[in-house]
Amino acid sequence: MAGSVRIPRSRNALSGFIILVLGAWGAVAPYAGPYYGFGFTPDHAWQYTPGRLYLSAIPGAVAALTGLIVMLTRSRWFGSLCAFIAALAGVWFIAGAALVRLLPASFHAGSVQVGTPIETGLTRITLTQLGLYTGVGAIIVFFAAIAMGRFSVAAHKDHVRAAELEEAQDRAERAGRFADGSGLGLIYGTSPDPSLATDYASDAGQYVPGQSYAGQSQYPSQYPPDLDSIEVYPSADPGATTEQQQPGGSQYPTTQTYPSGQAHPPAGQ
């Protein structure tokens, strides 16, 4: 769960931007430096050499690309991976020329060299080395380490934001399921997953067929509760007595005497 929590892009925007700029500088400066008398031999700008390609251009491009990803990504694991790759690119700026010498001769490692500084004097030679390789690599490693540390931490607000985003996505998914008609089966209780119909009914306040509603009515009563208990017995005879109108009584007398010879009451009675 912690690894899936996303972070805001602003958290590593500065570190990613610095890595991007330093990577671009480290890739381009050895090619453009001879214009200004700055760099290593050959003293012709934009001239290809294996040393400039493998010790400057490739690690600089890798650092610039991973710095851009670190600056824009919100994924913690992917951002940490890119920051680690950027740190490796920085290490290559620092020690790449020395590590190449350890390769077998079959890899033509002897042609992969930094070259001789164009500048003269100890101070200028040192600044050239720092400005194109050692210093650039050290700063890239520093900010890549900062980015990795910030990616490894998920603040409380990040967890809260992730929970809110998950809830919003769940609501949007449910709304979309009914907007395109694919969720009509939930209304009629024909969903293959009964829990979906129950969840929808609880959210929408609707009745789900097939679900037990013991002691509950599908349709609410239209009368107040105090009126439901009132029993009304209309009287067909306006002149009936009060006793005859009560539920326990009879609307008509149980016995009645008629004149002799009449088996039935006269018409109208």
Please provide a brief summary of the model.
By secondary structure, this protein is mostly helical. It is built from ten helices and no strands.
Order of helices and strands: HHHHHHHHHH
Number of helix segments?
10
Largest sheet: none
- The unreliable regions are 186-192
The mean pLDDT is 74
- Strand tally, please? 0
**Alpha carbon gyration radius:** 44 Å
By secondary-structure content and strand pairing, the structural class works out as mainly alpha
Question: How many separate domains?
Answer: 2
**Strand percentage:** under 5%
- Described by the principal axes of the CA atoms, the overall outline is elongated
The proportion of residues forming helix, as a percent range, comes to: 40-55%
Distance between the termini: 87 Å
Description:
- With 269 residues, the chain is mainly α.
- The protein has 2 domains: 9-153; 158-204, no CATH class.
- 54% of the residues lie in helices and 0% in strands.
- The chain has 10 helices and no strands.
- The two termini are 87 Å apart.
Short key terms for the protein model shown above:
54% helix; 269 residues; mainly alpha; 2 domains; elongated
Write the layout of secondary structure elements.
Layout lengths: L12 H20 L17 H23 L3 H25 L21 H11 L1 H18 L4 H24 L4 H4 L6 H11 L20 H4 L13 H4 L24
Helix pairs in contact: 1-2, 1-5, 2-3, 3-5
